[in-house]
Every structure is written in structure tokens, then in C-alpha cells.
Amino acid sequence: MEIRSPDFAKNSSRALHDAQLQRALGNVKLGFIAKRRKAIDKLPEFERLRDEARAIKEHTLKHLDLYLEAYEKKVLEAGGHVHWAADARDARRIILDICREADAKTVTKGKSMIAEEVALNPHLEQAGIDVVETDLGEYIIQLRNEPPSHIIAPAVHLNKEQVEADFRRCHTGLPDGRDLDEPVQLLGEARAVLRQKYLDADVGITGANFLVAETGSSIIVTNEGNGDLTQILPKVHIVIASLEKITPTLEDASQILRVLARSATGQEFSVYTTLSTGPKRPGDPDGPGDYHVVLLDNGRSAMLGTPFEDMLRCIRCGACMNHCPVYHSVGGHAYGWVYGGPMGAVLTPTLIGIDKAGHLPNASTFCGRCEAVCPMRIPLPKMMRHWREREFERHLTPVVQRAGLGAWAFFARRPRLYHALTSMSAAVLRAMAGRKGRLARLALARGWTRFRDLPAPQGRTFQAQWQSGKRA
Amino acid sequence: MSARDQILHAVRRSLNAHGADSARRKAVAHRLARHPAGTIPERGQVPHRDQVALFRAMAKEVQASVDVVESTDDVPAAIADYLRAQNLPQSLRRGGDERLAALPWDTQKTLEVTTGASAGDDLVALSRAFGGVAETGTLVLLSGPDNPSTLNFLPEVHIVMIEADDIAGDYEAVWNRLREHTKGGVLPRTVNMITGPSRSGDIEQTILLGAHGPKQLHIIVVGTNRPGGKGSRR
Ligand code: SF4
User: Fold this and answer.
1) Of B38, B61, B150, Cβ closest to residue A255
2) Where are the domains of chain A?
3) Which of A23, A295, B103, B186 has its CA 20 to 30 A from that of A150?
4) What is the pLDDT of residues A439-469, one digit of tens each?
């Protein structure tokens, strides 16, 4: 997809002026935070599981070459194929070749951030293949020709009236006067339209949450069941996944699964967790006849052994963005590429280059909430600082940032964003901290004390005083 | 060099490692062979009878409905009753699974039962679960010649029979049974872990049931009180 990350500032200010978007973003703050809290409170072992999950991924990354080999062997044993793609272009070529081989006219897709990363859809479409996204959120944004704005809730930036308008525009042939006021009616219509697509598809493409070395299985986690219909109905199933999705054993995957859904949607477990191993077996009445895995590097191997290695533990749960005051204010599209929020601010510069994504690591108040909620204990603020230091070394930043003002300068020169952030984050933190309000003070203080010898705290104090003076 | 070798080489270079390094190889082989379990939540580590009760409670929490019958002989009648109560036609599709085939279907004269995979026009399907996980009310279903996975997703109503004996406290216990079942060989093509009926929150974060998969999940637990069961992991 088109990279719009260099315009982060412009994108942000547009987002802040977009009333529809601001209304939709309210759902992020309302829903995700409370649901996650509730799920975690019900599981006393949650913090220990986070430690286990981190340790599993650390171990795996240290032995990644060997686990990749073990995984490949098991996929082959099960009758599947493994393709290695060094970059996005390789991945696109490999997948198009498989589709051509299968004489594919229609391809259904389960939600895959990696497919977004390699810009798969336009490539297949240019080759004359009809590509249909089947995750409801992905389907909606495909109709709108928009990128996802959230890694687990791609259409979170939209309100139901917008979805209704899109369905009326695209689902021609249905009665004009039909009632689509309620979300349940919209869902029913999408279900009916997509049902036929599943049955028509020649190839189904899914991502993977895990690739299990022990068994050669790919695991997907969904709530809708779209990923399953995408892979069991067509004659070919293609899995596209990046290298770091490797997990040693079923037990290891289970440890991480226990923190994934709780961190993502606040569910104890997602509705469908599906292990797929090879193609269908002799005698199986359904399932794909061919099973392909495309293993994508695209910069991962270069992240190993660097300060950004920690980012390879990411399981794409979305908790960091759900708790990020910057994301709450500007949404995912402002980040200008595939990944938004704190994880995007770290990952995007590694994948598309700091020259294009240099603003993103500044998009942080350093409140520390992303790290506090990340199930894999990824030190996101620290890595954002790493990027800023590198940016400094490369002299890519404007003078004011090189002087060390960094994030503060970025926000201070954008009063509306600055304002939105300070007031909103305080409100959210108050909600999180409950009646005592302790967390709110602590978290903000942590962010700002990093700049205590800089003008930032003064600026804020002045602003706060001015505000309270005005109210008094 | 092939893309494969290039990528593996790049990984090794970044890790400052060699593929032939025997200590690293040993660590990997060891983990794959031993598959250590890690932290298992206490909530499922209870006597089997309580695991079954927990399974039922957790499944209901995620909007599945749960029925309990004494023996497999009672299953056809329980299904007919359920369909009547839901105002559904007395008709279902099931796989050829031997335990489902052995049910006394002739006791329900009005119930029309067909077998095989679904092509998308069945309203109600019946499957048998290989296992259940009390921890989260999760069913585990295996694909195979007599267990089509299309039945788990295409029909609007999915009925699943599970024997109480097959309910365990945690996922790990089911993985161990699965390893026994496959005798260490290749897993079935599809292992479906199912926790409640299909849903989506993609429109304004409002959770709605019946996104692409079944709108209703009805679980029939057979027998409740067997001591021991296969449910103990340790
Ligand atoms: S960085 Fe952490 S919180 Fe953010 S998506 Fe990745 S795993 Fe989840």
C-alpha cells in the first residue's frame, strides 16, 4: 500500500478534525480497556503466563534457524509445501504463481496483516484475480478501498451509518428499501453475500498466529469462523506468515494463547482456534487438496541481534494501541502504513525505513501504558527512544528535535494534538485507576519526568494553570 | 544460494550462530521432544467431576447452550427435543463417526438424519468432540474421513456431542491425548478448538453472534460422574 507515514503530522491533525472518526475511536477506549481488565482479573496466573510467553519467544528467537528447519520438515512430512520469501516482492510472486497454477479466478482471504504488509491484494487483482476479504472488518474496508486502521479491528474507525452506505453502494441487486439500521442487519447481509464467495473460491489465503515446529501446523485464531471457511472450502490453502511466528510446541502455543485473547479482546479464549496441518488426507470428505506456507523474512532476520529484536515477540494482540493515548486521539490511519499505535511506531521504521517513518517514534507521550499492557513484555517506549537516537545520529530530524526536545517538541508545536492527548489520557487513566486515581498521576509523571530538565513540564504546568485559572 | 538458504544464513549471521552448534541443536531437540507445559491455571486442576461442571459453566459464559444426558442412548431424543424447542425442522447432517452411527436413531422416527460433508445447505449439523477443555469451555474436534470439518462451520446450528470422560482441565491434557491418538505421527488435517458460537465485533465494537459460522452452538454432555476420566493431565 501507499506509504503515508512521512505525513504523520498532517494525517494526525486531519484525524483530530474528523468528527466521524473521533466518535468511532470512542469505542476503542470504552470497549477494549475494560474488557481486558475484566478477563485478566479472572485469571490469577496471568502475570506468570506473560513471563512464560516472553521466555518462550526469547528462546525461540535465539534458536530461530533451527526451529524453522524443524518446522519445515514437519510441514513436508504432512504433505505440505514451504516457500521462503526474502521480501514482499518474493512473497507476492510466489503466491501469484500458486494461484495461477490452480487456475484461480476467485481467492478468499482471512485477515492477515502480513498480506497487508506485502500489499498482496493489488498484485493479485492486477493479474485478473477476484480477491475477497472475508473478515467482516476487512470486508468493509475493502469495499471502501481503505487500509485497516487497527490490527485486530480493521474497521474500528467507522460508524455503522458509514457501513450501511457502503453496503447500499456495493451490494447492488438487493432491494433499496431494505432495513439496515441495526448492526445485526448489516452482519446478516455480509454473511449472505460472503457465503457464496467462500463456495466459489478456488484458493483460500490466511495468515497464521503461530507456526508450530513440533507438528508443522499453522494456527489461526478468529471469532467469526471466516478463516476456517476460507481454508476448508477451496482446493488450495495458502498460509502467509513471517518468520517470527514460529513456536516450538503445542504447549508453548497454549501458553501464549492464554494471554493472546485476553489481551486483545478481553475474551478468555477466541471462538475458533484452528490447527491446520498439511492438505486433506486420503478419505477426508473436505479440506484443501494442497497446502502451502509462505515464510516471509522482509527485514525480520536483520532485526535479530539488534535492540529491535524484542519487537519480534509481538503477537499482534493490539493491546498497546488500545491503551495508547496517541492512538485514541488520531486512530490508525494517521500512522500512514500497515501498523499503527505503539507497535507500529516501532515496527514501521524497521520495515519501511526511518527516513519515511521517522515521525512515528515521536508519537508517544512516554506514559508507558503500552509496555505495561503488552502481554509479551515488549519495551515499546525504550525502542521508540532507540529510534529517536538513531534518527538523531543520522541527522534526519529538524533542528528543534536534534536539540533534544523530541516528542515534546512534536506535540507542543501541535497544540490541538497536545491538548487532545493530555486531556484524554488523563480521563482514560482516571477510569483505569478507579477512585484512588493513583495510576493516573504515576503514569503521567513517569512520562514527563524524562524531560524534567527540559521546558516540557513547565509548558504543561503553565497550560494546566491557565486552564484552571480560566475555569475559576 | 536458494531463498531458503539465504534466509537461514541471514538469521544465523544475526544470531552469531552456527547451524552445526551442538548445544543449540540439543536445546531445540530437547524442547520438541519434551514439550514442557509451563504455567497451567489452577481453575481446571480439580477433580474430574468439577472439571465437567466447569466446562459446562464456561461454555455457557460464551453463549453456548449445554444439555446433559445419562448415556449415549439418550442423545437422539435430546437432539429431537432441542430442535423442537428451537422451532427447527427435525433434520440434521452428521459425519459417519462410529460413535454417532451407533446412536439409537430409530427411537426418533421423525428425525431425518443424513451423513457426509456439508455443501452449505444444511441448517443443523451434529459432530462428536474428541475432547473438551474445562478451563475455557472449549471443544476440540478432529477432521477425518468420518468427521468433515465443513459441518463445524457451514450450518447455522451446530450440535456437538461430547462424552464427559473426554473433558479435561486444560489444553495440555488434550494435546497429550492427541499425541497418543496419532501415535506420534502427523496430526489430522484440521484440529478445531471451538469456544462458543461464531461472533463479530467489527461494527462499532458491538458483539453479534453468527458472523460466518454457526449462530448457535449446542453441546450435549454424555454422563457426568465417572471418577478419574481421561481428564487428568498429571
Ligand atoms: S507490541 Fe505487545 S501489546 Fe502491542 S500488539 Fe504486539 S504483543 Fe500486543
Assistant:
1) B38
2) 1-42+318-397, 51-301, 408-471
3) A295
4) 333 333 333 333 333 333 333 333 343 344 4
Ligand 1: nearest atom to the Cα of A321? 4
Type and span of the H or E element at A464: helix A456-471
Same domain assignment for residues B16 and B86: no
* pTM attached to this predicted model: 0.89
**B145 and B130 in a common domain:** yes
The CA B63 to ligand 1 mean position distance, Å, reads 28
The average confidence (pLDDT) of chain A is 85
A2, exposed or middle or buried, with CB in 10 Å at 0-12, 13-18, 19+? exposed
DSSP string, A85-121: ESSHHHHHHHHHHHHHHTT-SEEEE---HHHHHTTHH
Same-domain status, B26 and B69: no
> Band of the pLDDT at A418, cuts 50, 70, 90?
low
Digit-coded pLDDT (tens) for B124-155: 999 999 999 999 999 999 999 999 999 999 99
DSSP tag of A50? H
* pLDDT digits 0-9 by tens, B65-86: 999 999 999 999 999 999 999 9
Q: Is B231 a domain residue?
A: no
Report the number of distinct structural domains present in chain B.
2
Distance B74 CA to ligand 1 centre (A): 47
From chain B residues 183-212, the ones with a CB under 8 A of any chain A CB are 186-206, 208, 210-212
Note whether B23 and B103 are same-domain residues. no
Check pLDDT > 90 for residue B205. Answer: no
Fold of the A51-301 domain: Rossmann fold (3.40.50)
Residue type, B191: V
Burial (0-12, 13-18, 19+ Cβ within 10 Å), A300: buried
Which are the contacts of A181, defined by CB distance < 8 A and separation ≥ 6?
A164
DSSP assignment of B80-93:
HHHHHHTT--SEEE
Q: Give the domain extent around B50.
A: 42-222
| Nearest to A332, CA basis, from A203, A137, A155, A178 | A155
B27 and B116 in a single domain? The answer is no
A103: left (phi over 0), alpha (psi -120 to 50) or beta: left
Give the H/E segment covering residue A55.
Answer: helix A46-62
Amino acid at B192: N
Query: Which secondary structure element, helix H or strand E, spans residue A218, and what is its range?
Result: strand A217-222
For Cα atoms A271, A275, A276, give the angle at the middle one, nearest 5 degrees. 130
How many inter-chain contacts (A to B, CB under 8 Å) are there? Answer: 280
Question: Is residue B6 within 8 angstroms of chain A, CB to CB?
Answer: yes
Work out the minimum CA distance from B146 to partner chain A, whole angstroms. 7
